[in-house]
Specification:
This is dTDP-4-dehydrorhamnose reductase. By secondary structure, the protein is α/β, with parallel strands linked by helices. It contains nine helices and 13 strands. Helix 4 packs parallel to helix 5 and helix 8 packs across helix 9. The chain starts with a strand and ends with a helix.
Length: 279
């Protein structure tokens, strides 16, 4: 991984991957960063291209993006500028520099109305975030770029703010609301990064999918977290997503697509819960 660069190294995924592979280079939006990059400012790209040449970077993990669904919905033009236009500029130049790039996409390129969506299922984006990821996918394929597209479902980390907020409330005997009609199919960041490493080592282009084995409502998920932490699951109160102006996803799972038999492409959603949130 010595000649690998993470674009978006301050993200949760970026930080975790850096902890596992301390030799990787990474970009940051921090003003004092060794390698500064702001996706909203194409003028900052030149420093990255220079570093790629100097350090002979051969592989890139592309994580930089506006990832919050609400931010993309509230400011779609800004989202398109960063998540599509500037992203495509960067990816095309990475290709020109001879880099193999892994672009992180999303299950939101589908409508989330059916479970286990196959890699070539019809694309009907669930969100603006998904629409913009799809546009980048199409650009990559149209221009035959040296890029692997990785579509994960929800990636869980130990610092998931929703879980931390619920645990705090339940420990104080306070009820916590959770959507019982909004579903997802989580994988752990450990599993995701293992899959990402496999792709980087293979340098095989294509479209890949990883997913939890099953779909969970946020209500079921948070009740499970409460139970394994010996807290009262009755304090988790079911509500409808619409009550919080959230569009409910009927499903979040994908049919896994991988390039060899070394990994199944799926992970038990409940095992993921136990991995991170047990006590």
């Amino acid at each position: 991984m010595r000649r690998t660069l993470i674009i978006g190294g301050d993200s949760n995924i970026g930080r975790y991957f850096r902890e596992q592979h301390k030799e990787v280079a990474f970009t940051s939006r921090r003003s004092n960063a060794e390698l500064f990059l702001d996706l909203s400012d194409p003028n900052s790209f030149e420093g990255v291209f220079k570093t790629i040449k100097e350090k002979k970077i051969s592989s890139v993990i592309f994580l930089a993006a506006i990832t919050k669904i609400a931010d993309c919905e509230n400011k779609p033009e800004r989202s398109h500028k960063l998540n599509v236009e500037n992203t495509c500029i960067l990816i095309k130049e990475l290709h020109n520099l001879g880099c193999f790039t892994v672009f992180i996409s999303t299950n939101h390129i589908f409508d989330c109305k059916s479970p286990k969506m196959a890699v070539n299922s019809p694309k009907k984006p669930f969100s603006i975030y998904g629409q913009h990821k799809l546009e980048v996918e199409e650009y990559i394929i149209q221009h035959c770029l040296n890029v692997a597209i990785l579509r994960p479902t929800k990636i869980l980390t130990p610092c998931f703010s929703l879980v931390n907020a619920m645990l705090r409330d339940l420990k104080n005997g306070i009820q916590f609301e959770a959507f019982d009609d909004h579903f997802f199919s989580p994988v752990s960041i450990n599993f995701f990064c293992d899959c990402l490493t496999e792709i980087l080592l293979s340098k095989k282009t294509g479209v890949y999918q990883i997913s939890g084995e099953n779909d969970l409502s946020y209500y079921t998920f948070l009740r499970e977290v409460a139970i394994i932490n010996n807290l009262d699951p009755k304090l988790v109160i079911p509500i409808k997503a619409e009550s919080k102006q959230v569009i409910a996803a009927n499903y979040g799972s994908l049919k896994p697509k991988w390039f060899n038999d070394s990994m199944s492409g799926t992970q038990s959603a409940l095992e993921t819960v136990k991995l991170f949130y047990n006590g």
